Amino acid sequence: KWRITTAGGIGVVNFQFYLDNPIGGWIPYQSEANFFMFKVERKIYESLYGGVSYIFADVLTSIEPLPVSDTLTLHGIGLNLSLDKRNNPHYPRSGYFTSVKYNTFPEFLGNETITQKIELDFNHYNPIRQQKDVLAVRLYAGMGLGDLAFNQQFIVKDTDIRAYTQGAFRGNYLLAMQGEYRWNFHRRWGAVGFAGVATVFKAINESDSGKLLPGIGSGIRFR
User: Which residues pair with 8 in a beta bridge?
Assistant: First the structure.
């Protein structure tokens, strides 16, 4: 009936982003972060879950080649709603999972920038070849409302469209869709083929807004 997720830690992330104007090149940066997250959900009815979450992050971002740094402290409250019809939460072969997440960073919690983030995702799993293989389809939408900070933006990365350099495409809105065929040819061994497309809006580079970013590939997996 209950699903509880928590995480916390300290760390340093070395990352990069691309700025076409006026630099026209990659800019490396470093983020030192302390973070904590807690989410609790309860079964409302059958496969429907609902709950709340709290997010804290204290981030110091510095750009390596320049004497530029920025400190950001975030306190976020979230509402979560999910419908879980998967036959197995770890390796689903049939059913679907869809969720809606709303996070707000209000002024009364001490946030300097008042923003909201909404995320919607839908994952569907179709059994193929006498339920040995799986055809998986995923749709994702991320929307940022307000003046999102640099570290709050959505980034095209391996969660949705693989093979793009992380940090190349980022913005306040992200749309992505992809499909994957999971061929389980021998006990725990399998191969996958996938294809998808994504796009960002209100991108850090204006020319990237609305640009279609396709991806295709394959891989080997051991379960």
Answer: 36
